[in-house]
Amino acid sequence: MFTGIIEELGTVTAVDAHGDSVALTIRGPLVVSDARHGDSIATSGVCLTVVDQTSDTFTTFVMKQTLDMSAHGSLRVGDPVNLERAASVGDRLGGHIVQGHVDGTATVLETADGDGWRRVRFALTPELSPLVVDKGSVALDGVSLTVSAVSPESTDPAAAWFEVSLIPETLSATTLGDRVPGDRVNVETDVLARHVRRMLRLDAAAREQTPADPSELAPDFSSLEAR
Question: pLDDT for 151-195, tens place per residue?
């Protein structure tokens, strides 16, 4: 479990293919300072397991499913990544509850600079659109952010979008400050929204599969007195 508060900007130092999986080696002196074999480290929002380490790097395997769901398949040597160690019990929850289980990716549509801050608009797939709400929480490349705007409900689902506003600290301390139109980021929506969607889908499926009882649809006059 993570909070979406980035601790360190790491650097990919090696990318080794292993069949349909990839072994990544990442330099991050802070996050490996107390890391042990089997620990979890969020790497640009993806929860990965430490399988090897040195004094300033850690190595992790990225499975095919993760490569398909995230932007990690395009990582190259020298690329920067956002790093966060797993939260400790009793810590302050500075961001929001982040699992490190990404739902997919979003593409930067446009950016606009304010006085020291930046607004970034992202394209949103029809599948993820219902899970992102105005003023709700979202994790982008592992960074806990508040959604500042979403496309109107009348928008074509294929053209849905959402926006975040990045403060100077986020621009300088994470990879989001370097994102330009066309770049992809990993997206993790709010876990509660995902559970609600699942329950609604199961309920809708159950209603479609269960034929209505005619006796429940017909009016019941049995309690009325004969007149």
Answer: 998 889 899 999 999 999 999 999 999 999 999 999 999 988 888
Q: What does residue 149 show for φ and ψ, rounded to 5 degrees?
A: -165, 150
What average pLDDT does range 195-216 have in this prediction? 77
Amino acid, res. 93 = L
Return the percentage of the chain with pLDDT > 90, whole number. Answer: 74
Q: How many residues does the chain have?
A: 227
Three-state helix/strand/coil letters over the chain:
CECCCCCEEEEEEEEEEECCEEEEEEECCCCCCCCCCCCEEEECCEEEECCEECCCEEEEEECHHHHHHCCHHHCCCCCEEEEEECCCCCCCCCCCCECCCCCEEEEEEEEEECCCCEEEEEECCCCCHHHCCCCCEEEECCEEEEEEEECCCCCCHHHCEEEEEECHHHHHHCHHHHCCCCCEEEEECCHHHHHHHHHHHHHHHHHHHCCCCHHHHCCCCCCCCCC
Longest dimension (CA), the chain: 91
Distance CA 135, CA 98 (A): 16
